[in-house]
Amino acid sequence: MVVPSPTPARSVAAGALGIPSIDLSQRRDRVAKLIARACEEVGFFKVINHGVPTDAIARMEAAGFDFFSLPAHEKQKAGPPNPLGYGSRNIGFNGDTGELEYLLLHANNPSCSQKAKMINRKDPLKFSCVVNEYVEAVRQLACEILEMLGEGLRLRDCGALSRPIRDCDSDSLVRINHYPPCYCTNKKVEDELCTTTTTTTTTTNTVATATATATAIAAAAAAAAKSSSTMVMNNSSKHKISRVGFGEHSDPQIISILRSNGVDGLQVLQPAAAAAGGEAGGGGVWVPVAFFINVGDLLQAMTNGRLTSIRHRAMANSSYKSRLSIIFFGAPPLHSLISPLPEMITADSPRRYRPFTWAEYKKTMYSLRLSQDRLDLFRTD
Ligand code: GA4
Q1: What's the complex ipTM?
Q2: How far is the CA of 334 from the centre of ligand 1 (A)?
Q3: pLDDT at residue 187 above 50?
Q4: How many whole angstroms from 368 Cα to the centroid of ligand 1?
């Protein structure tokens, strides 16, 4: 079933949408309520004071930029993405494309496959250590957020949402997307592309554009400036264009945690000592702090539709800088049974989804296009 085109809407700036920003250093009971409210009302929010070490983020971003600055034939050795590995423009197996290149890796063992060994041939161990360090910090963040969500939703078992991701057989993934700078010499083409973009953007979609607004760590930005990607379209052109980099979709897993080195992002001022690698600024150091969190399809199913897996998309880069986003997709083990939690099924809210395994859901998702609504196929009504 193909999802009909969303109602045409304007592109709205992220700030204007009022995306909730949650400071995780507040009292736990307050944070738990805020997370539950953000998940119910928006399905998307950003977190600050999340505890993921700044230098782990910087090392991960630098490793991404190092890889994407390799010549195309070197990068191709880590591809094709079937489904894991290096991909360029092609997304999934059913004809979706986007203005990006990416690395898709298993979160539990990022360099286990022969392909992954091609990512950093000189030092595969270093690459895998950097990814492991980042993934473990972000997995911990994902699980803490899910446990607080459980408290905020007053679940009897507050670990029910996080346990599948903590499981050592968890099928979680990490994706590094690289959106090269993208320019156009032809003003008419630019206008056409920009018009198309504007008329198909929905309010909910713009949240992913917002994900492009977290600011780069200074070290990674320096790496970006050095990056000589083979996907850069035309360096000599005058006009910036805005196109879909990764089309509209919802994330299939339980929870997604995204960081981006977007150009005009959010920063907070921290004491100099607290922020290694940040950009110096007056009395302190400006460091990017936000992670963006979104509810995935499985969390929608486990909460019987009380939380909604938000549809989003990412625009292709329209700046002079390469943009890198890193997303952790928290998923259960392949054979876990996904079913609405008992307390989410009530007289007012009867069961909406039949039980299914993650393996079954994955099979369905890979048989469909990016924008298709897969969870609908598991509804009981
Ligand atoms: C969307 C979320 C993740 O990026 C992803 C994507 C996956 C892929 O790129 O291989 C999918 C897409 C995502 C959903 C539908 C299918 C599968 C591309 C596609 C057309 C890694 C995931 O898990 O699902």
Answers
A1: 0.99
A2: 16
A3: no
A4: 10
